[in-house]
Amino acid sequence: MSPSLTQTDVTVVPRFSNIATFMRSAHVPLSSELDIAISGVPFDLGTAFRIGSRFGPACVREQSRHVRRIHQTFGFSPFDLCRVADVGDAPVRSFSIRDSLALIEDHFRKIKDLEITPLTIGGDHTISLPILRGIVQHGPIGLIHIDAHSDTLDSIQGEQYCNGTPFRRAVEEGLVDPKRLVQIGIRETLFDKDDHDWAKANGIRMISMNEIDQRGLEAIVEETRSIVAERPCYLTLDIDSLDPSVAPGTGAVEPGGFTVREMERLLEGLMGVDLIGADIPEVSPLYDEGGRTGRVAATLAFDLLCLLAKAHAARQR
Amino acid sequence: MSPSLTQTDVTVVPRFSNIATFMRSAHVPLSSELDIAISGVPFDLGTAFRIGSRFGPACVREQSRHVRRIHQTFGFSPFDLCRVADVGDAPVRSFSIRDSLALIEDHFRKIKDLEITPLTIGGDHTISLPILRGIVQHGPIGLIHIDAHSDTLDSIQGEQYCNGTPFRRAVEEGLVDPKRLVQIGIRETLFDKDDHDWAKANGIRMISMNEIDQRGLEAIVEETRSIVAERPCYLTLDIDSLDPSVAPGTGAVEPGGFTVREMERLLEGLMGVDLIGADIPEVSPLYDEGGRTGRVAATLAFDLLCLLAKAHAARQR
Amino acid sequence: MSPSLTQTDVTVVPRFSNIATFMRSAHVPLSSELDIAISGVPFDLGTAFRIGSRFGPACVREQSRHVRRIHQTFGFSPFDLCRVADVGDAPVRSFSIRDSLALIEDHFRKIKDLEITPLTIGGDHTISLPILRGIVQHGPIGLIHIDAHSDTLDSIQGEQYCNGTPFRRAVEEGLVDPKRLVQIGIRETLFDKDDHDWAKANGIRMISMNEIDQRGLEAIVEETRSIVAERPCYLTLDIDSLDPSVAPGTGAVEPGGFTVREMERLLEGLMGVDLIGADIPEVSPLYDEGGRTGRVAATLAFDLLCLLAKAHAARQR
Amino acid sequence: MSPSLTQTDVTVVPRFSNIATFMRSAHVPLSSELDIAISGVPFDLGTAFRIGSRFGPACVREQSRHVRRIHQTFGFSPFDLCRVADVGDAPVRSFSIRDSLALIEDHFRKIKDLEITPLTIGGDHTISLPILRGIVQHGPIGLIHIDAHSDTLDSIQGEQYCNGTPFRRAVEEGLVDPKRLVQIGIRETLFDKDDHDWAKANGIRMISMNEIDQRGLEAIVEETRSIVAERPCYLTLDIDSLDPSVAPGTGAVEPGGFTVREMERLLEGLMGVDLIGADIPEVSPLYDEGGRTGRVAATLAFDLLCLLAKAHAARQR
Amino acid sequence: MSPSLTQTDVTVVPRFSNIATFMRSAHVPLSSELDIAISGVPFDLGTAFRIGSRFGPACVREQSRHVRRIHQTFGFSPFDLCRVADVGDAPVRSFSIRDSLALIEDHFRKIKDLEITPLTIGGDHTISLPILRGIVQHGPIGLIHIDAHSDTLDSIQGEQYCNGTPFRRAVEEGLVDPKRLVQIGIRETLFDKDDHDWAKANGIRMISMNEIDQRGLEAIVEETRSIVAERPCYLTLDIDSLDPSVAPGTGAVEPGGFTVREMERLLEGLMGVDLIGADIPEVSPLYDEGGRTGRVAATLAFDLLCLLAKAHAARQR
Amino acid sequence: MSPSLTQTDVTVVPRFSNIATFMRSAHVPLSSELDIAISGVPFDLGTAFRIGSRFGPACVREQSRHVRRIHQTFGFSPFDLCRVADVGDAPVRSFSIRDSLALIEDHFRKIKDLEITPLTIGGDHTISLPILRGIVQHGPIGLIHIDAHSDTLDSIQGEQYCNGTPFRRAVEEGLVDPKRLVQIGIRETLFDKDDHDWAKANGIRMISMNEIDQRGLEAIVEETRSIVAERPCYLTLDIDSLDPSVAPGTGAVEPGGFTVREMERLLEGLMGVDLIGADIPEVSPLYDEGGRTGRVAATLAFDLLCLLAKAHAARQR
After folding, report:
1. Which residues neighbour E292 within 8 Å (Cβ) at sequence distance 6 or greater?
2. CB-based contact (8 Å) between A94 and chain F?
3. What is the pLDDT of residues F179-191, one digit of tens each?
4. Do B16 and A287 touch (CB under 8 A)?
5. How far are the Cα atoms of D26, D149, E56, E90, E282 from residue E59, in angstroms, in the given order?
6. What distance in Å separates the CA atoms of residue D215 and residue D194, rounded to the nearest whole number?
7. pLDDT mean across residues, chain B
8. Which pLDDT score, from 0 to 100, does residue F3 have?
9. Which of B32, B36, B31 is nearest to B312 (CA)?
10. CB-facing half-sphere around the CA of A64: CA atoms within 13 A
């Protein structure tokens, strides 16, 4: 592996030292030398209420200092399996939703064109749409969507491109197959009684937190694997799927979410799924306490990186 | 319904906008037009140690901006079932326990006389006593008391009207039937070995957190419903019944409490009970982090509002 | 005076009690019964970097509980001079700069048409433009602009309507006479060398913090009064004009600003100026500590309310 | 000196170590072995609005770890001049103003009877009354009162013994000579126009912050010394006399107060005054940021300890 | 019992009052009058990344004000079973690991020589080594080690005495029998693949959080009791074994840990084990929120005090 | 200039975006292409009490996002005068003072050998010693030392290399000429009466904050320039020289320090001095509030960068 792509060595360099990149990975431009590109997307103009996830990528980079090298359960380092680097942030604009979405889409199309697998830190959940536009080129893919919210509204205050709508748009645009879309952990209060009608009518499988309490997590993992099947799929993990006691730093808090242990069990249960990319949106450090949410996001991003590294390596074989 | 009683429309008006009332309800004076009155009671002079719940109502109002309109599990909006409004705070005094208790009692007697169902945000737990004095007019009622503490001491430092004693007073005054009083989640360290003797001697059913861990929550819900039976009862949910990781903003923190998911399952299990009122005391934002506890309180207050709306509607039939 | 317009009585009702309005004033709709209308404008989409002043009005309302009734230096209460009320927030939209500016302008045009003097809490500094559009009807007025930043750029990232440009637009649109525009306390680092060229070329008087240190505040007060002369003018007081130690809760902090004592001396020096309105933008509680900035804003808003009440009363004579 | 009265040695024992007493002084019971007794008075039931100074003494003890041994300007250590110890907290009760005032008075009468000079950390400003009752035995004394508030109201909400009234009571009870009472730094907004009338009618000299800005601090020091003259007097320094940027941790914040440098110059100017005791009330850590206000209070308490040590030593000669 | 060893009476003295010692116990020097000595060890120079647990003992003392007198589950007070006091902090040095370890060892050897059972608050986990050196005199003992980390590395950055290595050293030095050493809750990411090899090779039983999720806590308690058997053992409870949502105030946070209810069930399951001492290291208030972690540590320290009191009393019989 | 050395363009790229380097400068290795190298030195093992400045460099990098491009008073950008880059952190070790000092010295010797001018962010004040060792090669230089503390003790707890001693060591080692060493703003309480004797005996000019209050800042600037004369000198600006209200995030807070406006006037007064390097130590974000201290440090670092750029450019002529 190119020496320019090695992580800073955590056994020699104190973790408080140097410029923060995602898990101490090298900070390099996009190139064909990479297998996995970690990007930030500091976009939050799709947020109707508590804005601020533009500061998410910087926070997660800083908090990822905590993560060491080897995943305890999986027993390997993704940096040993793949060439991984921090490619910086996708370009965005401070005032325009549409300009930003176009710039983000371009960034991920380049990633796709270089056959790189993307792992992304948001930014609000709107970003999943331009990411999917960038990386989905040959027909709809599957989607594992872990979230407190369904995000399948038609619009909020008339705006069709915001963090309450990305997966409706993605299905409408043929990027995601609603039959292979599973939503896990939904527990939002609703604007209107029919908020979830479109999703259900289109065959999206919505699993509420109540159902998880009743059926247990193992059954959910099983069902999820069978829904996405053995074909390519994307994973999006909204940080607000976790309980606010675990991850207070997010805009749309909904008390009553996952613990980290549950989430880790869920993600571990997805090892072997053909993941072609993943994102963690909605980390919003302004509402956080002491970087706690960023640290949880970094831990889960490391889990996802392991899943992506295995899947990427499997696709190369 | 009178247009003056409609909630601010969450689909048009951004939730960060305008003056904060409980869940964007109308702010109106008490009148016979109302079915359910939400009040604050900013009284905390009954607090021996960590005072500050006088700031609870303002905090919960502000944090209730988060709650949308429809309850996901129940599938309805309490605002569609009943005429609900925020009637402001019960009057209190800054320096006198007795004057304040009298003023609070008056406020709730007026509510009772108008046949309104009260939902109240505290204030320390002392407030349940004047509330019960105000609304109980024909013999003792049942009481579902969710709390880390039994609150059945005779006095603290010689003071008989404080947040360690309200339910002893309520039983002594014939407001509550001890045989229909169930305490759920008790886990306090004790001042003295005999702290719980009076409660047990009077037939109060005290369920410790340990017992809940052993028997499971479903059994507790079952038993609770059978204790209060199908007659009128009141529900008081001390925010410190929750774990401090979930609800740090309270005076008498006791590590080892409920998660929000458990609490919601418990409350959902009480649908159909003949609730004639409810309160959530002991939110104390000075000890909180980022409004987190107020937000949990607002979420649970919405659950209680749904239970009260169903019960109120059932009584009108 | 209509009893519905009286402040809550601070000598009887504890200040922690009841729903927060600006300085406990009545919360009423706009009507000809009013002399002075206090509004919030929770708009912050004009913010390129640290967004969040949408939460400013709610924060200042809450913190204005601190202010009692009588101004110590002036010796009167503005509530005794004028009919003052909190008219709530101007309508805004969560996703659109242009729609929001139009809605804000409408709100202030109504205020103007009712011959009411407006006092406004932001929101980011963009809001001064639609306020001026709403209230300036007969030729350009004077402007006292207290700020760390000149806010006379042509655009930021191509956006012409944002918080770096309102006073350039206001001059271009003929709302403000640049010869009667004085900027006090400027100390920003610049994007480019020519950032201030337009302002200087148009005859705007820009007084840097350095100049204030050298000449003393008294000379500045004198000069300000002579610039705006005895004709109508508006006052806008960006909270970031204060030092971040005093007012940390704002987006574009610039260390090295005013103390509160200096600011109060400056405002007291403006008694008698023919002020037709005033605003305090850029309070951003997400960056604040314990509501401190909101409290300072409430204190200064009270000072401005006194100035406006005197000016309004003088115009009625 | 008795070895049991030595401070912990700051050159050997790390300052983060061991149980916190005021400036590492010995923790001993009251006895005739002492010259100066530092007490806490954790009483705050006299607070109408933002309660919480009951936690002041613990906070100042903890923060006094910062203070080393020798005062830089004075050039000596008060521990070398006098036998100084931390005698713990005066007894108080959680629910009763009157019981607490009686207990506090007893504590300070014992101190007086042992001919000890008291230095006290509050608690709210009510405590100055029982302290004065305890230590004034032969006719009224002088009083240097540094504060944002005059604290000479007759009552608040009908309560005559609270933190808005102690100095009116002290004058009425013949404890303080109003002609030798000077109030420095007053800047409060008023409940009513006549709030200050009683003070002025009784010959109390009230110096507003505005006047200080105009006349300069040196003139104020001069005048203060001439008012209290060379006879015994007491000093009370309300922490809210400082600007909230310096000391945010207090209940009744009033933007526009002293800097620490001004306060230190003022206190240094009082060297040689015949001080028979001093207190610092109104430190309220719940409203503080990182212990900052406690640290400022500890610094000023050290200044006062130096003044008291000199005065005590002078009286022994 | 000597009156000088009684706790401050929580039924008379408000808990916010007086100087903070562990659970209001007497603060006395080490002497043969004691059965159990609670010490702080404010040492954190063994911390590679997020230093600061030097402030742990002061924080836990302050937060232990919350704990009342009687343990609800056990039904007794340890202060009724044993003579318990706070003996202050073990001496440490600010700059030297080796000097500090020697001083700590001396402190605990004195405790052992007086036949006192020690309960200790850290400081970082390095402190368990000098504690064990001080109290283990006749061959290796058993060890119950509850932690997110195994702490059995050989060195970090070449330093053999730090918080990643104490139990490797303790086994090598013959202080602990690796066959009677059980590690509960391990879930760290690893520096290197072989981080746990030494522990496993030496027969240490390492129970990961994953295994606990699968087998349930009861099985773990059972196995733990059988590993340490009925012979003397020590218990060390790293506060980072708890989930960061419960105990954020620690250096090496690892999302996905114990809840307090699980930890209490685990500790209650150890009643009757022959514990000869216990410690709670790694409380680091600089990373905490509102003293929350210190409060949990105080709660668990009370649980441990009950276990130690029973064991100590049993050994006296 | 090499394109690889350009700052990120603040007019196009939102300031919240991308990886944080000092003022958006390029992150490159040390090379002869540079004129000015900005380094972090995350070393804090020289701290006796409140450790944590190891996190200073990361904090200042993050907060330097605020600074735009052009200095308002100086009217130029240092990036237009010199080739400036962020060269990352000097290597340090987590456990060893001596190893770290050697590594830091090496880093700065390389800088010196490449004829680069260093600007450094600490780390505790110990770091000035190895920096001076690295860059002073031909006899003692002058030193402008702005600080609350003299830092000229012989040792603390026996340690000669810590943050209380660097300038004594630097004079003893012939790196700094005590006759050209001026200390500005000293106001510490002292461990012992003789703490300042060595400094005074060696001809160091120590200017207390009291003296500054009496003589005014202009006289101090004048005297400083005449002390260091027109020969090479270094500037070290301890962040604790500022008042804690301005810069709370530091270990050894001393209430009563500089305002930012005073500090900026002081630094502006030093334009033209032959500065060969500068550092800002003691930023300690663990004690900070919302990044405020880091932001002030970034602002002052920008001032220093301007001074260094002018001086460097002057030396090239």
Report:
1. B244, B245, B248, B253, E247, E248, E249
2. yes
3. 999 999 999 999 9
4. no
5. 20, 34, 5, 16, 12
6. 25
7. 96
8. 52
9. B36
10. 26
Q: Residue B35 to residues A114, A317, B80, B120, E51: CA-CA distances in angstroms?
A: 63, 67, 12, 14, 57
Chains that contact A by 3+ CB pairs under 8 Å? B, C, E, F
Give C217-241 pLDDT, tens digit per residue. Answer: 999 999 999 999 999 999 999 999 9
Q: What is the ipTM of this complex?
A: 0.95
Dist CA E127 CA E43 (whole Å): 7
What is the DSSP-derived secondary structure letter of residue E265? H
- Burial degree of A210 (CB within 10 A; 0-12, 13-18, 19+): middle
Longest dimension (CA), chain A: 57
Round to the nearest angstrom and report the end-to-end CA distance of chain A: 18
Six token digits for residue E24: 């209001």
Q: Which two tokens stand for residue C79?
A: 């509530």
Please give the single-letter amino acid code of residue D212.
I
Q: What is the pLDDT of residues C254-276, one digit of tens each?
A: 999 999 999 999 999 999 999 99
Burial readout F196-214 (b: 16 or more C-beta within 10 A, e: otherwise): bebbeeeebbbbbbbebee
Rg (Cα) of chain B, in Å, rounded?
18
Strand ranges (E), chain B: 26-27, 36-41, 84-89, 117-122, 141-146, 176-186, 205-208, 233-237, 275-280
Tell whether C54 lies on the interface with F, counting CB pairs under 8 A: no
Report the candidate in A176, A285, A188, A281 with the shortest Cα–Cα distance to residue A237. Answer: A281
Q: Does D289 touch chain F (CB under 8 A)?
A: yes
Q: How far apart are CA F161 and CA F166, in angstroms?
A: 7
**Terminal-to-terminal C-alpha distance of chain D:** 18
Question: Is residue E16 within 8 Å of residue E95, measured between CB atoms?
Answer: no
Chain centroid offset of residue F296 CA: 13
pLDDT at E1: 47
Cα–Cα distance for residue pair E233/F315, rounded to 1 Å: 69
- What is the nearest CA distance from B122 to chain E, expressed in angstroms? 21
What span, in angstroms and rounded, lies between the C-alpha atoms of E8 and E15?
9
Please give the backbone phi and psi of residue B46, each rounded to the nearest 5 degrees, phi first: -90, 15
Do residue D94 and residue B47 have CB atoms under 8 angstroms apart? yes
Whether the CB of F73 is below 8 Å from some CB of chain D: the reply is no
Radius of gyration of chain D (CA): 18
Residue C246, burial from CB neighbour count under 10 angstroms (0-12, 13-18, 19+): buried
B172-184 burial, b for 16+ CB within 10 Å, e for fewer?
eeebbbbebbbbb
**Alpha helices (H) in C72-208, listed in sequence order:** 78-81, 97-113, 128-135, 166-172, 197-201
Average pLDDT over residues B96-113: 98
Here the tokens at position A236 are 């999006």
Q: Using alpha carbons, select from F244, A158, F39 the residue that is nearest to residue D249.
A: F244
Please state, in angstroms and rounded to a whole number, the distance separating the CA atoms of residues C257 and C259: 7
Would the CB atoms of B42 and C93 count as touching at under 8 Å? no
CB atoms within 10 A of CB F216: 10
Q: What is the mean pLDDT of residues F255-274?
A: 97
Cα angle value D149/D155/D157 (rounded, 5°): 110
Query: What was the pLDDT predicted at F2?
Result: 57
